[in-house]
Amino acid sequence: MGRVLYDQVRKRPTSRARGCYRLPIELGHDICYRALRTRDARFDGRFFTGVTSTGVYCRPICPVRTPKRENCVFFVCAAGAEDAGFRACRRCRPDTAPGTPAWRGTSSTVSRALRLIADGALDDAGVEALADRLGVGDRYLRRLFHEHLGASPQAIATTRRVHFAKHLIEHTELPMSQVALTSGFRNVRRFNAAVRKCFDRTPTEIRKRAPGTREVGGPLTVLLPVREPFDWADMLAWMTPRLTPNVEQVVGRTYRRSVDLSGDVGVIEVGPTPAAKASLTLSVPGDLALHLVAIAGRVRRLFDLDTDASAIAEQLGRDPLLRPAAQAMPGTRVPGCWDRFELAVRAIVGQQVTVVGATRLFGRIVTRFGRPLPRAVEGGPTQLFPHPQDLADADVASIGMPKARANTIRGLARAVAEGDGVLDLAPDLDTAIQRLRALPGIGDWTAQYIAMRGMSEPDAFPAGDLGLRKAVRGRADTLPTAAQVRRRAEGWQPWRAYAAMMLWRQASAAQGQQP
Q1: Taking the domains of the chain in order of start, what are their residue ranges?
Q2: Do 391 and 410 touch, CB atoms closer than 8 A?
Q3: How far is C-alpha 88 from the chain's CA centre?
Q4: Which tens digits make up the pLDDT trace of 144-153?
Q5: From 95, 306, 459, 465, active-site residue
């Protein structure tokens, strides 16, 4: 009989396997195997199947003949399968499956660690430094990863790098040494070994069989798989009135923004992929090639690409108040941010003003204190958002902002510039809110909004928001208090951020404008 992820496994699936003895997953072996037999696309990205008779792991939608039940071992993520000795299937390309693990059932510490790894936390530092940032011991963090993912933090980071390396091998003519460096490997020997282990081919063999390549020095293109349902046009419609002037722009169906990563600057572009419905195309200029992996991770969070939106809509739709919005907008996402400091400043600027008014003031901050983008293209972004040190002692009030709010921005900038961790990912939502509210001028609404969009906290909820109070009031004569709204929303946990987005979008649709 096949092994179940949440059962104690007493022997390894193959002689090469090194991981996965006890892995938490909501789907049992029977459900996973039924989904595998039917190739139901709704399970794509929720689990991966390792086949002990072939040493290959696949997505549940793989078109190959269904393996025997006793030869199947199921994993919550691709890194777990690879760490157990399985290599990626060449037909279903499990490296392109939607991101895992899903929010549900995953340790919050592991979730935050995964976000930091996606930001490149293990590219220049070890697991000990990552554990310090999370406030836990490195041995405890390793144990959490094996319990929840069946793989070590380094294995997760290596899997992330090697799949990006394969994309560069197939779609660029970069020298292998440059591919290794760009994808985060410190030397070519480790790069070659990792690629060979994962794909059972050398980098040169992969390139020879690639259908085509691009010229050296051209923009690098990455396909970002998306969990459906996903409405790109709807996402851009919500973001457009909130774009940072001169830094971000939307042209047609393409999103652009200027970025600065460790002094390397340029403009990235994100748009729909014509040949693949469930993906977006990320274009990165050659000057930012070394940051490609980190850029892709930020873009995924910016557009909330990894969320199982339909499952969240199903849960929230059980509440009569949310049912109309959940049914009308099953793909609702919570847009994130490119940079937490930029988002936090935007939230402070937006206190008690309209979206249009906040965007106007935000644009003045960029114009006055931002830096010009070198080699800016006519018609594109022209500036870089100011660094925290640029605003720490700036005369922010001179742009026409109330003095108290300007002081709040300067206080936040000083705190971030001095490295006090106010915008770092916290162990839990309450800790994040307490850190933010400790800064003068930041109340609950601002803190919850920053946590919601800047820290990707799915349960952040600005209960005092006027729009949410009106939505909860319904036809009652008086507006409920923030405490009353919070009590009403208890049944929406842990998805209150998505509930807030649904109510905002529903209100804006009724009024014909953005919330």
Answers
A1: 220-306, 314-334+456-515, 337-453
A2: yes
A3: 23
A4: 887 666 778 8
A5: 465
- How far is 293 from 160, CA to CA, in rounded Å? 8
CATH, range 220-306: 3.30.310.20
Instruction: State yes or no: is 62 an active-site residue.
Output: no
Report, at the CATH architecture level, how domain 314-334+456-515 is classified. Answer: Orthogonal Bundle (1.10)
- Residue 58 among the catalytic residues: yes
Identify the segments of the chain with pLDDT beneath 70: 1-27, 38, 40-43, 46, 95-108, 111, 147-149, 211-218, 276, 510-515
Question: Where are the alpha helices (H) located in 210-339, listed in sequence order?
Answer: 232-239, 292-302, 309-316, 323-328
Would you state the structure tokens that stand for residue 78, as one six-digit string? 């691709």
* Torsion angle of C-alpha atoms 190, 192, 195, 200, degrees rounded to 10: -130
Q: Print burial letters for 169-190: b (CB count within 10 Å at least 16), e (below 16).
A: bebbebebebbbbbbbbeebee
Catalytic residue among 58, 72, 77, 89: 58
Number of H helices, E strands in the chain: 22, 11
Residue range 337-453, CATH number:
1.10.340.30
